[in-house]
Amino acid sequence: MAKKHKKSKKLRTRVPRRTFLRASSALGASLLWTACGGDDGTLEQAGSGQSGTTGTTGPGSGGGAQSSTSATGPGATTGASGGTGGRPPTPECAETEDNIEGPFYKAGAPDKTSLYEAGMPGTRLTISGQVFGLDGCEALAGAVLDVWQADDAAVYDGAGYKLRGKLHPDADGKYVLETIIPGHYLNGAQYRPAHVHVKASAPGHVLLTTQLYFEGDPYNDIDPFIKPELIMTLSDGPNGEKLATFDFVLAPSP
Ligand code: FE
Description:
By secondary structure, the protein is mainly β. The protein has one helix at 79-82, and strands at residues 32-33, 124-133, 144-148, 156-157, 164-167, 174-180, 186-187, 190-191, 195-201, 208-214, 231-232, 235-236, 242-245, 248-250. Helices cover 2% and strands 23% of the residues.
């Protein structure tokens, strides 16, 4: 199992620092929200309710994350495949880095076993891993991963819950998230790297709000929010999909 870097300083109580949302069409058409803002927490309305609002999708959208085969970020591990439901406490077991919530979180997402839906455009992606507690680095039962992301055209679903859902890892904290690689959307004057938002929680532990990124994304180097510990390596799956791993380590509640 890959090691995790020790972090220097951390807020133990996380309050969503930026909240969001913006609707588009007032008619029956689906409300699709795209990002355009001064930072990830401020935005303007864009588009007219049509999917794939033009002007917000970056070149190489959905495919910007390049494949590679070696592990990178400390958060990117082999937890799901190699975990046994727990591991001994180790200095390398460090709380997962948080990251901004951004403007597109939508409460009330339904329970899902997969965010991917048949026919959904984009590069299929499977992220797997495990949820641990910082207290002893034991696997956590009862964890919930509330996940949301943009689609291949860099659009967040503001009307429904496409690419939004709550995953329930097993009793050993293991999870498998089937989805697609998100597109790039404009954040002010520049595109954000592809990312998957997650709120990870478990009984007796502090809610973690973070984002998962992809090694090789052309916008990683210019993004003001990305943290290296949150960058996952992609490898090629057997059916053309991309594979990534990420373990979450949650701090115990005060
Ligand atoms: Fe986002």
